[in-house]
Amino acid sequence: MNxxxxxxxxxxxxxxxxxxxxxxxxxxxxxxxxxxxxxxGPNGSGKSTLLKIISGVLVPQxxxxxxxxxxxxxxxxxxxxxxxxxxxxxxxxxxxxxxYEIVMMGRTPYLNFTGFEKKEDHEIVAEALNTxxxxxxxxxxxxxxxxxxxxRAFIARALAQKPSVILLDEPTAHLDxxxxxxxxxxxxxxxxxxxxxIVIISHDLNLAGSFCNRAIxxxxxxxxxxxxxxxxxxxxxxxxxFEVSSEISTExxxxxxxxxxxxxxx
Length: 266
Ligand code: ADP
Ligand code: MG
Description:
binds magnesium ion
């Protein structure tokens, strides 16, 4: 069964005069369990909007989003939060919670009416902190650690939700090279070892080309290409979608295709 199915989805933002400011769609998409998908496209192409529609945060004016076979609008927010983890783009303007408190927020959908955490919740938070490798930072403030560590904390918060899918909006945007790679490696491990579906918006074609099996290319509110990463990251598609010329090379490592994109800067 598809995890997500988008049928004829259309979403329009209106401007102050109630005129269409941006149109997304029509989008038809299916996302299966175990996929690791990148969403690629220039600024303003509708990537974040699409991710919000997939997660049920935005409800399309036309078409439907099915999650595990049922309309996503039929699920309560709490129910969705037990299945879908969301990692927002890096933000510095967050209240100075501790890392532990941030990750414990992932348990909110599981707490009963008293709102008290149980032993199990603390165990799950500890496990999530260990998985992303920041257990020793748990008592630090979220603003007292590096961007890479903070991004791991938000991934741990998503993990504490015990989700079947994690959606990420440019999670590596402000990280240095080593931490960008390590976040993608971590996501790949979660995808392979914990069967968590990963959908990640990124501007890094090489990380998408190395770690994601499928790429969804967007331009002007539409999905213009969708398929195996190796078939999507071609000179023609990159020219067409990003208006940048490039050279592509591929290699097979451990049976998996890695696509390397060399952007031409001249
Ligand atoms: P991307 O993530 O690909 O950069 P977005 O999905 O964030 O693109 O935005 C697509 C377009 O929709 C942009 O032109 C943006 O200005 C517009 N947009 C995004 N959010 C809103 C909103 N809340 N109200 C009106 N317009 C919006
Ligand atoms: Mg965006």
